[in-house]
Specification:
Layout: E1 2-5, H1 11-25, H2 42-50, E2 54-59, E3 62-70, E4 91-99, H3 108-122, E5 127-133, H4 137-145, E6 149-158, E7 162-172
Parallel strand pairs: 4-5
Antiparallel strand pairs: 1-2, 2-3, 3-4, 5-7, 6-7
């Protein structure tokens, strides 16, 4: 997979990629709670592209995966019992990591996560953190398998799902 930093001209392609993922996972048992043009939010995607923190992966020229890696996090992160003592400017957060089901079981999510970890290392970060909607079993299995430590479950409000339980994970660098 070739991982590329998104540019403004990639916006519509990325938006449609997430729509395609949402369509493809309907009916599956474990869903991330995403809804077209609610989450991922189109304005957020544009902003993340402008900030240079949205990346996508191509396989044979086709968009197969995407994610955001930045330093923005939910306010509840401040209340979590993280293992790594890191100020807000000393950790990065992975958001909206998606692999289209057509490209499943090829290790693309692992490649994206390793890419994010390398970004954080190269930026001198102490940790990478993220949250997963409780019950999203594929994500709950992925991150610990890559060395992330489960921290705790916290209620958080996100527009796409309302107030729900999210599992927090951390990877110390």
């Amino acid at each position: 997979m070739k991982i590329i930093k998104a540019k403004p001209e990639d916006y519509q392609r990325i938006r449609l990629f997430y729509h395609s993922v949402i369509d493809a996972i309907q009916g599956q048992k474990y869903l991330p709670g995403w809804r077209k043009d609610i989450y991922p939010d189109p304005d957020d995607l544009k902003q993340e592209i402008a900030e240079g923190c949205l990346y996508y992966g191509l396989v044979d020229g086709e968009m197969a995966a995407a994610m955001v890696v930045n330093q923005q996090c939910h306010e509840e992160y401040q209340n979590a019992k993280w293992r790594i003592d890191a100020a807000p400017d000393e950790f990065m957060v992975i958001h909206i990591l998606a692999v289209h089901p057509r490209f499943g079981r090829q290790g693309l999510a692992k490649e994206l996560v390793h890419f994010a970890l390398d970004l954080a290392r190269n930026a001198g970060m102490k940790a990478v953190r993220l949250d997963v909607l409780k019950g999203n079993l594929p994500a709950e299995k992925l991150y610990p398998g890559l060395g992330f430590e489960y921290i705790e479950t916290r209620p958080m409000f996100y527009e796409d799902v309302g107030v729900m339980e999210f599992e927090l994970f951390e990877f110390g660098l």
